[in-house]
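INPUT
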Amino acid sequence: MKIVVLVLLAGGCVPVAAWDRERLARPEMAESAHPEADAFDAHVRGAREAALEPGASGGGGCGCN
Amino acid sequence: MGAGVAATDLLLAIAAVAMSLQGSARADGRAAIAGHYYTDSDELAVWHPQATVRLEAIDELTLAAAYDADVVSAATVDVRTSASTRAFVESRHGIGADLTLEAAPAVRAGGGVSGSFSPDYDSATVALRLSVDDDERIHTLSTAATMSYAVVGRTGDQDASGELVAAGLSAGWAVVLSPAMVFDLAGALELQAGFLESPYRFVDVFARGDPRQRLAMPEAVPNERLRGSARARLRLAISDEVFVRGAYRFHADDWGVLGHTADVELSVAPAEFLTVTASLRFLGQRAASFYRGRYETLPLVPELRTRDRELAAQRSAGGGLSVELRLPEVLGGEAAVFLRGDLTETRLFDTPLLRSRLAGIVGLGLSYTR
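OUTPUT
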């Protein structure tokens, strides 16, 4: 939590103009660089860990026993 | 196999409908196929093909469809110590359809349905989503609700089966902190009710002081489970060529499981068309309160009992490497290919049958975007 607060204080929330968003538009800064790979990793971890992944939907079956 | 053919037909049908809606207009969207192979030292192997299509049907409406499958072959310690010790091969098929509507310039609403079908686990899920940007597109708030229904059972045994219902809520907040930094917070809660046991899992219960006397009892866990997680993540562009992504996740449930996960990724883009990414991931988890490696209480059998390693104390450390190559101006769009490999070692505590697991993943994906 302290890290979260420090990040927010350090960065602030200043407007970023469209022409200043070139780096933000890079694929490396995307929410998910490889959606299919991320979906597979979440699927594997769903059967290996007890965690609920934020954004993942419930159900689906684990595909292994 | 039938489900696989039906899913492919569904994907093609959705794509055809979306294309026909467009008429002669451009067909913006994304199509991707990927294949992953998972194998581990517990003699489990999974081949996982995927296909996704997303099309902007009209200006404000985006349609998406997805198909994936698992072809599983297993001779794990659970299989080797069960009543039927034979290794098995089975497959699971999953399909999904989704739509997103740009209800206003900064408001997106959507929903989707998905289904998953295997010999011992069928499920259906409905999801609704909403996200809103502020006028400056600095802040994004998002929320989602899911409801799923599953029928869980043991192949060929009507008695070892049940229904499982799950309802989930999630929320997220993302903020652009600078022209090179994005921070986001996300949280999720899920309530599960129904048949939460694995119908294949049996737990040995020993007579105290006499390990020769033993009963193999079906796993028994509570009929309800509330679990949640929260994640904080930072994405940072250090330069035009170097990018860092770090995340921390906390997870817990009312069965006593509690865990922490840290992820970090370093991406280097030596050229506009090439990105190489190295990643590290660490997880530590406390066991469910009723988990024990051995149950030595015969003749009093404990009410709750499991040897599910998902619910056990564990630590894992892993790392991976991926390479993505992007080819612009292919048929008016951009084609991309990625190749990845990951290794993860998990140390399991209080699990006599399996002390550690080394798992490897390799994956290859192709996508086309315009």
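end of record. Helices of chain A lie at 2-11, 35-46.
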